[in-house]
Write a structure and sequence with these properties.
The protein has about 500 residues and is mostly helical. The chain has 21 helices and no strands. About 40% of the residues are buried.
Length: about 500
C-alpha cells in the first residue's frame, strides 16, 4: 500500500503541471472559438494533430527506453544512459528542424496552411525543441524531482498563455485604440500564426530553463548502449506512431473524408473544440502516466517484497475508479462546462461522452501495457496499436462520409476498445496479474446506472437538476470511500 500512496503523491504533483497546465490551455478555447473563424480553428486543430505525430517520431521511444536502461542491471551508470539519450535526440532534432525549414513552402501546402510557410518553420522548431527536452524532463522524473518538473512545465505554459492573450486580445484592442503602439510588429491578417509564435517562444523558454539539467552532467556517449536502447525503443516508436495516429488521424484525414469538402475545416474546428471538453480525462491519464512509468520500473527492479503484482492491480483499480468519477462529473455538469466554447460550436457536444469513454479505454490500455514493457516484449505494443490503427482507418473511411465528425468519435471508441481487450487477453498469458475485475465491473455498472438515472430524472429546473446530480455524485464518492476503506484526513479514529 505504501507504493500506491507514493504513486498517488507523485501523480498529484505531476498532475499539477499536467492538469493545471492543460486546464489553462483549455481556457484558451473560448478565446479561439470566439476570436477565430471556424475554418481557422480547423487549421489550428489540423496543425497540432500533425505536430503530435511528428513529436512521437522525433522522440522515437527514447523516453521509456531511458527509464528502462537507467534501471537496468546491465547498465550501472544512469548518467551515461541520460547523456547518450540526450546526444542522440539532439542530433536528430537539429536535422529535422533544418530539413523542415528548407522545404517549408511545399510542406505548408500539404499542411493546409496555404502560403504561410512561416507556420511550418515555427512548428518545426517547436517539435524539435520539445522532442529534445523530453529527456531532461525524464531525467527529473528519474531523480524524483516532481516539484521542479511541475514548475518548469507551468512556467512554459504561463508564457504560452500570456503570449496568446497578448496577440489575440491585447494587440487587436491596441490596433483599434492606439495603432502606433503595435502596428510596427503586429499584423491582424497573420491570424492563427500568432498561436504558433506563442508556442515557439514558450518552447524556447523551456529549453533555457533546462540549462542546468542539460549542462550539469558529465557527458559520456556509449554507442553500444544507444544501439540496445534503439532496439528496445524501436517497437515503442511504431507503437507511438500508431497510438498518436489513433488519436490524430481522424483530424488529419477529415478534410478528405468529410461529406462536404467546402465546410470540412469548419466541421473540423467544431469537432476539435468539443474534443477539448473531453480533455479532462486526457489530463488525468497524462498525469498518471508521468508517475506510473518510473513507479513500475522501480517496483520491478526492487521486486521481492511480495506485493509487486498486487501494487499493479491496485493501481489499475484506483485509476478506473477515479476516471469513472471524472466521466460522471463532466457529464453531470456538461451544460455548464460547454460554455468554455462559443455557442456556435454546441452542435458538436454529442461527441463528448463517446470521446471520454474512448480516452478511458486508452488509459486502461496504458495501464495494461506494463507487462510488455517489463518483459522487454515491446513489439506487442506495436501489434496492439497497429490493430487499433487498422480499426481507426477502416471505421473513419466507413463512418465519416455518412456521419461526419461523429464517425470520428465512434471510430476512436472502437479503436481503444480493441486495443484494451487484446492487451488484457494476451497480457494475462504472458505476465499474469490478478486484476480485481469484480470490483472494476461493479463500479462500471454503478457509473452507467447513475448516468442514466441522472438523465431520467431531469426536470425543467436547472438548479434542481444540478442539485440532484451533485447528490448522485456525492453518493458515488461515499460508496467508493466506504467500500475501499479509504481513510479521510479530517476523520480521527478513536479507540
Amino acid at each position: 500500500m505504501g507504493g500506491i500512496k507514493s504513486l498517488a503523491k507523485d501523480t498529484a504533483i505531476y498532475g499539477l503541471s499536467s492538469i493545471v497546465g492543460r486546464f489553462l490551455n483549455w481556457c484558451l478555447v473560448p478565446i479561439y472559438t470566439n476570436v477565430l473563424p471556424k475554418n481557422e480553428f480547423g487549421v489550428v486543430t489540423y496543425i497540432y494533430s500533425l505536430t503530435a505525430l511528428l513529436l512521437i517520431i522525433l522522440t522515437y521511444g527514447m523516453e521509456t527506453g531511458f527509464f528502462r536502461f537507467a534501471n537496468h542491471d546491465r547498465w550501472r551508470d544512469p548518467v551515461q544512459v541520460y547523456t547518450t539519450s540526450l546526444i542522440s535526440l539532439g542530433f536528430t532534432s537539429v536535422l529535422f528542424m533544418i530539413g523542415a525549414c528548407a522545404f517549408c513552402g511545399p510542406l505548408a501546402e500539404l499542411a493546409q496552411c496555404g502560403d504561410h510557410s512561416s507556420f511550418i518553420c515555427m512548428m518545426a522548431i517547436v517539435v524539435g525543441v520539445d522532442a529534445y527536452t523530453s529527456i531532461p524532463f525524464a531525467w527529473l522524473r528519474y531523480q524524483k524531482r516532481p516539484v521542479r518538473f511541475a514548475t518548469l512545465k507551468l512556467v512554459s505554459i504561463a508564457v504560452n498563455i500570456c503570449l496568446n492573450l497578448f496577440f489575440l486580445l491585447v494587440c487587436p484592442w491596441l490596433m483599434n485604440t492606439a495603432p502606433a503602439a503595435v502596428s510596427w510588429f503586429y499584423d491582424p491578417a497573420y491570424g492563427v500564426g500568432y498561436i504558433f509564435l506563442a508556442n515557439l517562444f514558450s518552447s524556447l523558454v523551456t529549453l533555457m530553463l533546462l540549462y542546468p539539467e542539460i549542462t550539469g552532467v558529465g557527458y559520456s556517449f556509449n554507442g553500444r548502449l544507444l544501439k540496445q536502447m534503439l532496439t528496445y525503443s524501436f517497437p515503442l516508436l511504431i507503437l507511438g506512431i500508431a497510438g498518436v495516429m489513433n488519436q490524430s488521424v481522424d483530424k488529419i484525414l477529415y478534410p478528405y473524408l468529410a461529406p462536404d469538402k467546402t465546410t470540412a475545416l469548419e466541421e473540423l474546428g467544431i469537432y476539435g473544440a468539443n474534443y477539448k471538453i473531453a480533455i479532462v480525462m486526457v489530463m488525468f491519464i497524462q498525469a498518471f502516466r508521468f508517475a506510473y512509468e518510473p513507479f513500475i520500473f522501480a517496483r520491478h527492479r526492487d521486486r521481492g517484497d511480495g506485493d509487486e503484482t498486487k501494487a499493479y492491480s491496485d493501481a489499475m483499480k484506483y485509476f478506473i475508479i477515479f476516471a469513472l468519477l471524472i466521466f460522471l462529473t463532466v457529464m453531470f455538469y456538461l451544460d455548464i462546462i460547454r460554455y468554455f466554447i462559443a455557442p456556435s460550436y454546441f452542435s458538436g457536444l454529442k461527441v463528448v461522452p463517446v470521446v471520454m469513454l474512448a480516452e478511458l479505454f486508452f488509459g486502461i490500455f496504458f495501464n495494461l501495457s506494463l507487462w510488455y514493457k517489463l518483459t522487454d516484449q515491446t513489439i506487442w505494443g506495436t501489434w496492439f496499436s497497429l490493430a487499433g490503427l487498422a480499426v481507426t482507418l477502416l471505421l473513419n473511411a466507413l463512418l465519416v462520409p455518412r456521419m461526419g465528425y461523429m464517425g470520428c468519435a465512434w471510430a476512436a471508441l472502437a479503436c481503444y476498445g480493441v486495443m484494451m481487450t487484446a492487451s488484457y487477453i494476451i497480457g494475462q498469458r504472458k505476465f499474469p496479474i490478478n486484476y480485481d475485475l469484480k470490483t472494476i465491473v461493479f463500479y462500471s455498472v454503478v457509473t452507467a446506472g447513475l448516468y442514466f438515472l441522472a438523465e431520467a430524472i431531469t426536470t425543467p429546473s436547472e438548479i434542481v437538476n444540478y442539485g440532484l446530480r451533485t447528490l448522485i455524485l456525492a453518493a458515488f464518492c461515499t460508496l467508493v470511500i466506504r467500500r475501499e476503506h479509504i481513510p479521510l484526513p479530517f476523520v480521527t479514529k478513536h479507540n
